[in-house]
Amino acid sequence: MTFGQRLHDVIGARGPLCAGIDPHPSLLTQWGLDDTIDGLRRFAGLAAEVLGAEAGIVKPQSAFFERHGSAGIAVLEEVIATCREAGALVLLDVKRGDIGSTSQAYADAYLDPRSPLAVDAITVSPYLGFGSLEPFLTTAAAHDAGLFVLALTSNPEGPQFQRAVTEEGAGVGATVLREVAARNADATPLGSVGVVVGATVQPSTQRLGEDFAINGPILAPGVGAQGATFDDVRRVFGASARHVLPASSREILQAGPDATALRDAVRRAADAAGELTR
């Protein structure tokens, strides 16, 4: 079963919310935990248990695990296993992007089921050229996994590159969207290659040419603590909002460490996100 099919099914069952697990030091402190491997394990373990049972898609941020070294990666492996066993799809936020054999090694690490870090999908960067993603695209297809390609991110530095115009006269972000749409052509019920477009992006005076009709999922970070609302999702994506996975992390996680409060927070977010598909 392709990632696009699995995603379509889990959205139908649990809704489109993508719940993040970001063990930021400030959140560990807020939970009354130390910024240590023990604190990380307690934080991430509870978050995975609750979010994995409630959200359709869970998105661990790899960097916050990597900063604890090999022990942190071991915790990440536990989080992945817990979420998948609970029925959630795991989208690992790693934003990898390289060329040749290095790209292939990254792809094998995260997308090959034989790897202890194997997940359902990962985020990737196309800014060494979209063709540099070929090892990721080929490996994802071989293992029925998914990719989310950075297109129009919401960080203030993003437009310097993403809204620049190519020699063909198209915006770089729009070019990424077109490339992804081509990869998803004829896929049913949903393509397995998605894009990342921030829910806080502002309209551009340039003609980007995107209507987000990529026949694939759109990961939209920024809902909640970063200031975006579900109304913003409708404003930015229009008719394609039904294919958006609104991502929220801190807004949910700050409800911990009480498991009941955390569960209530993710359920409220999931209910609000579900309105986008109706």
From TrEMBL:
It is an enzyme of class 4 (lyase). The active site is at residue 95. SMART domains: OMPdecase (SM00934). Pathway: Pyrimidine metabolism; UMP biosynthesis via de novo pathway; UMP from orotate: step 2/2. Its EC number is 4.1.1.23. Keywords: Decarboxylase, Lyase, Pyrimidine biosynthesis. Belongs to the OMP decarboxylase family. Type 2 subfamily. PANTHER family: OROTIDINE 5'-PHOSPHATE DECARBOXYLASE. This is Orotidine 5'-phosphate decarboxylase. It comes from Nocardioides massiliensis.
